[in-house]
UniProtKB/TrEMBL annotation:
GO molecular function: 3'-5' DNA helicase activity
Gene Ontology biological process terms in this record: DNA repair; DNA replication
RQC domain segment(s): 426-497
Coiled coil segments of this chain: 384-411
Keyword Iron: no
Origin: domain of life: Bacteria
Protein name: RQC domain-containing protein
Keyword field: Coiled coil
Length: 513
C-alpha cells in the first residue's frame, strides 16, 4: 500500500508521519502550533523511546506496509483545521489490505479510531497505548506481506486441517448415519423403546461438536462453504477472523500461536470415544430386533420378485396417469392391490447387508413410510399368485375404462346458468389463459371470449386471437361465472391480474408451460 502523495513529514518529528484524515481532506497544509508543541511532541517522545526496543526487521516491515520514508513508523491523522483528527491515533486495520485515492485523503472508519484527547491523558496511560499501537502495526505489517485473498485461502485450508474437522471427515459416514437414523421412521419399528430413548438422548450429546459447525463448512467438497467470506483482523489480540455472513459462522486464527480455533472447541478424545459408542449401541439394539431384520430381508425378496414385471407395471402406470389427468370421470377407476404394492416397493431402497454395521446399513435405506413393514404378510400372499396374468387383466380393464371415459370436444362439460359449456370450449379458455396469464384482468379475458371489442382489445390486438368470440352467444357475466367455476374446480388459479393455469390444466394446452 502506498500513500506517498498523501504523506506529510516534519523534521522535528522524524518518527511520525502525518496523513490528512477525513473524506475529501486531500492534503495537510500546516499543523496547529499548539498541537505540535503539546500532543504531538509527547507522542513523538514515546515513539522514539519505544523504537529502541523494536528490531530493525520489524521497522523495515512496518515502513514497507505503510510506504514510509526515513525513520517514521507511526501515522497520525490530521484534520482540515490542522488539529489531531479525533486524537490522531488510528488502528492499523484502517490501512491493511486497502488502497486510498490521492484525491480523497484517508476515509475514516470509526471502529479504527481512538477517540482520545491526548492532552488529557497522563503519561502512564498514553505510553502503554503508544507501545501497544506500535506492536499492532508491526503485526499488521507481517500480514500485509500477503493479500486478503491469500489469507482467506490459507485460513480455509487451516480449517480443513483442524483436528475435529479431519476426524469428522474420516467418520463422515458414521456421523451422517447417526443424524439420519435419529430422524428415521424405522426407529418406531424397533423393540425396546427404553433403549431407543436412551440412544436418542446420547445422540444429542455426541452430535453437538459436529452440529456446532455449519453443514456447508463441515461437509463441503471445498475447504469451507462456497460463500464469499470476510477477513476481520483484530490486531490488538493478534488474531484473524474468517467470517461468513450467510452461514453466520466464523473461525479464528491466532497468528502468534499458529493455531486455528473454532467457535467452540471440544475434547477430541471424548468425541472419538462417543462416536464409537453411539454406533455400537445402535448395532446392539438392531441385533435384538430379529423380527424387523427378517421383514426387511423379505421386502428385498419381494422387490426381486417384481423385477421381471417392471415394464408391464410402467405401462399400467402410464394408463393410470392418463386416467388421473382426464377432465372428468363417470365411473370408479378399476382397482388392483398391485398398484399399492408396486408403488410402495418401487419407492423403497434396501441395500444388501454385507460387512457394514447395522447403523450404516439402516442409514442407507430409503423407506418413505413403514407401511410396507406392516403389510409384508399380505403382500407375500398376493404375490404368490400369477402376477403376469393378473397384471395383464388389470391393464385391459384400464384401457377399456380410458376408452369409455374419453371426452370429445362436443361433449358437455358443465352448465352455467343453464348454458352448456362444452369441453372444446374449455380447452379454448385454457389456451387463452395460458397465452396471456397474468397480463390482463379477468374482465378483459371475458370480453375476448364473448367477442366484445373495445379500444383496449383493439390496441392490444386481442381480437386477432383464435379464442376471440369462442363464447360469442354468452353474456359477459356468465362468461365470468364460467371462469370462476373453473377456478373453483382447480382448473385455474387467481393471479394478482387475471388468471393462470394450474398443474391440473397444463396438460390440456397446446404449449408446455
Amino acid at each position: 500500500m502506498s500513500l506517498t502523495k498523501l504523506t506529510y513529514y516534519m523534521e522535528e518529528f522524524p518518527y511520525l508521519v502525518f496523513y490528512p484524515g477525513g473524506k475529501k481532506n486531500k492534503s495537510i497544509r500546516s499543523i496547529n502550533n499548539k498541537v505540535r508543541k503539546e500532543s504531538i511532541h509527547r507522542i513523538h517522545t514515546m515513539v522514539e523511546k519505544a523504537v529502541q526496543h523494536i528490531t530493525q526487521e520489524d521497522v523495515t516491515a512496518l515502513q514497507a506496509f505503510l510506504g514510509l520514508q526515513g525513520a517514521s513508523v507511526l501515522p497520525l491523522l490530521i484534520s482540515k483545521e490542522g488539529d489531531l483528527y479525533l486524537g490522531g491515533l488510528v488502528k492499523p486495520e484502517l490501512f491493511l489490505f486497502e488502497t486510498f485515492s490521492n484525491e480523497h485523503g484517508v476515509p475514516i472508519h470509526q471502529e479504527y479510531v481512538f477517540e482520545a484527547k491526548i492532552n488529557t491523558l497522563s503519561n502512564d496511560k498514553l505510553e502503554p497505548l503508544i507501545q501497544s499501537l506500535l506492536n499492532q502495526y508491526i503485526f499488521c505489517a507481517k500480514l500485509a506481506k500477503y493479500s486478503r485473498k491469500n489469507w482467506i485461502t490459507y485460513l480455509e485450508i487451516r480449517f480443513e486441517s483442524h483436528s475435529l474437522v479431519t476426524f469428522a471427515q474420516s467418520k463422515k459416514k458414521e456421523v451422517q448415519a447417526v443424524e439420519k437414523m435419529n430422524k428415521s421412521n424405522l426407529l418406531s419399528q424397533l423393540k425396546y423403546p427404553e433403549d431407543i430413548a436412551f440412544w436418542r438422548h446420547r445422540v444429542e450429546i455426541v452430535m453437538r461438536p459436529f452440529r456446532s459447525i455449519p453443514k456447508d463448512w463441515l461437509w463441503s467438497s471445498e475447504s469451507t462453504c462456497n460463500h464469499e467470506k470476510d477477513l476481520i483482523v483484530h490486531s490488538e489480540k493478534r488474531v484473524m477472523e474468517l467470517h461468513c455472513d450467510i452461514c453466520d459462522y466464523q473461525v479464528f486464527f491466532n497468528h502468534e500461536e499458529n493455531a486455528l480455533q473454532l467457535n467452540e472447541e471440544f475434547d477430541l478424545e471424548k468425541v472419538r470415544k462417543r462416536v464409537h459408542t453411539i454406533e455400537r449401541q445402535f448395532n446392539e439394539i438392531a441385533e435384538k430386533n430379529d423380527s424387523l431384520l427378517d421383514k426387511l430381508t423379505r421386502i428385498q425378496s419381494l422387490q426381486q420378485k417384481l423385477k421381471p414385471f417392471q415394464k408391464q407395471w410402467e405401462s399400467i402406470g402410464e394408463l393410470l396417469n392418463q386416467i388421473n389427468k382426464m377432465p372428468k370421470q363417470t365411473e370408479t377407476i378399476p382397482f388392483s392391490p398391485y398398484v399399492e404394492i408396486f408403488t410402495q416397493l418401487n419407492k423403497i431402497t434396501i441395500p444388501n447387508h454385507e460387512d457394514e454395521s447395522y447403523l450404516l446399513w439402516f442409514s442407507q435405506m430409503e423407506l418413505p413410510n413403514v407401511h410396507a413393514i406392516k403389510a409384508i404378510d399380505d403382500w407375500e400372499q398376493l404375490l404368490n399368485q400369477d402376477i403376469g396374468r393378473l397384471l395383464t387383466e388389470y391393464e385391459k380393464q384400464l384401457e377399456e375404462y380410458l376408452e369409455q371415459n374419453k371426452i370429445s370436444s362436443q361433449e358437455e362439460f358443465t352448465k352455467v346458468n343453464k348454458h352448456p359449456l362444452y369441453w372444446g370450449e374449455v380447452e379454448q379458455v385454457l389456451q387463452l389463459i395460458h397465452d396471456y396469464a397474468g397480463l390482463y384482468p379477468a374482465h378483459v379475458i371475458t370480453q375476448v371470449l364473448i367477442g366484445k371489442t373495445s379500444n383496449k382489445i383493439r390496441t392490444e390486438k386481442l381480437h386477432h386471437t383464435p379464442q376471440f368470440g369462442v363464447l360469442h352467444e354468452w353474456l359477459e357475466k356468465d362468461a365470468m361465472k364460467a371462469l370462476k367455476m373453473l377456478e373453483k374446480e382447480g382448473w385455474l388459479q387467481k393471479l394478482s391480474k387475471g388468471f393462470g393455469l394450474t398443474d391440473k390444466s397444463i396438460p390440456f394446452v397446446e404449449k408446455a408451460v
